[in-house]
Design brief:
Layout: E1 12-15, H1 27-40, E2 44-47, H2 63-74, E3 80-82, H3 99-104, E4 109-112, H4 117-127, E5 131-133, H5 147-157, E6 162-164, E7 168-170, E8 186-189, E9 193-196, E10 199-200, E11 207-217, H6 218-224, H7 232-238, E12 244-249, H8 255-267, E13 274-280, H9 293-301, E14 307-312, E15 323-325, E16 328-334, E17 337-343
Parallel strand pairs: 1-2, 1-3, 3-4, 4-5, 11-12, 12-13, 13-14
Antiparallel strand pairs: 5-15, 6-17, 7-8, 9-10, 9-14, 11-16, 16-17
Helix pairs in contact: 8-9
């Protein structure tokens, strides 16, 4: 696994928009505020040509132009890249990304989440390069920063290799067009659910497990499955001695969509060497008929006989723990406290 160099003081942060850009509010104002913050911290900023574009369908520009922007920024003076935002059709950009060339370039951190799974995941399985599943650029415009944003920057700078749960999460956001810089509206207490196989583990009983981190947004992962960008089985087999620690979260998928996605990934052999599962709060996880978000995952994950931690601080219901995709992690859980220690090897 290749690990990029850390972002140094005075370094340059590049900003591609392979998914949505920051053409509309509240993202335009938030992105501008984020750039000023980074510049005030002494960093140089390098926005890509699509940052403020709104010419694409579900992405900032045409797939060809988004792919060209990524290749340009990976080869540029930027020391790391942070995606402008999530979106809908970043998958269409992948045919215009030269992964063979990226594997030959000096590795650079790329950070983003949601639709950016299309790159955070493929960088790992196609080029053996670590990335960060973490917040997109406009989130850094909030005032003040949530500690999760400090954690994300800490991974890029090398100051953090451990992250922990944040104690509470946002159910209803206050950020909108009139209030683009609002911080997370953390009102809901963190309530982890932990299982060993299908057995629910009581709060008083701790869990510890390790594995090489791989995962992202399930909506995107099942879309990649079976395509030429899916070399998951080979990646999992290569690192089978470490075990694959899957982190998963969902955006548009409802509970039946999550269950179908879990079944599909299992049938494709993705979970052959699974050592555990970290599952974020789904954005669309309300029970349907007799199925809830927990059983949607456990029907498959529970059969593996490994630890499963659910409702973790991952994904679309912030705050989210930034995770270095491809790193070897040790997860420690007791009660509603969770810690992820990452080793870059």
């Amino acid at each position: 696994m290749r690990y990029p160099k850390y972002l140094q003081e005075g370094g340059t942060i590049g900003f591609p928009a392979p998914s949505f850009g920051c053409a509309t509010e509240p993202y335009r104002t938030a992105f501008g505020a984020a750039l000023k913050k980074w510049e005030g911290m002494g960093y140089r900023t390098l926005p890509g040509p699509n940052c403020y574009a709104d010419q694409g369908v579900g992405i900032s520009n045409t797939p060809e132009k988004c792919g060209a922007e990524l290749m340009e920024l990976f080869a540029s003076r930027a020391d790391c890249l942070i995606s402008c935002g999530g979106g809908e059709l970043m998958c269409e950009v992948l045919p215009f990304v030269d992964f063979e060339k990226l594997a030959g370039l000096e590795a650079k951190w790329f950070m983003g989440y949601s639709d950016n799974t299309n790159l955070t995941y493929t960088l790992a399985v196609l080029t053996d390069t670590a990335s960060v599943y973490g917040p997109c650029a406009s989130s850094f415009g909030m005032e003040p920063w949530h500690v999760s944003l400090e954690d994300a920057m800490g991974i890029l700078t090398g100051e953090r290799k451990s992250v922990a749960g944040y104690g509470g999460w946002e159910k209803e956001q206050l950020k909108d067009e009139e209030h683009p810089l609002e911080p997370y509206n953390v009102t809901e207490p963190l309530r982890l659910k932990r299982f060993l196989g299908r057995r629910e583990v009581p709060e008083s009983e701790g869990l510890q497990f390790t594995g090489r981190l791989l995962g992202g947004c399930m909506d995107c992962l099942v879309n990649l499955l079976g395509t030429r960008f899916d070399r998951t089985a080979a990646f999992a087999d290569k690192y089978r001695e470490d075990g694959i620690l899957w982190f998963l979260e969902a955006c548009d998928l409802n509970v039946f969509g999550i269950r179908r996605a879990m079944w599909q990934m299992e049938q494709a052999g993705w979970f052959e060497h699974a050592s555990g599962f970290l599952v974020g709060r789904p954005a669309n996880g309300e029970p349907v008929m007799n199925l809830d978000a927990f059983d949607a995952v456990l029907e498959v994950a529970g059969r593996k006989g490994v630890p499963v931690v659910m409702d973790a601080d991952l994904g679309h219901r912030p705050p989210m723990m930034p995770l270095a995709v491809g790193s070897v992690a040790q997860v420690s859980v007791k009660g509603n406290e969770m810690r992820v220690d990452m080793e870059f090897r």
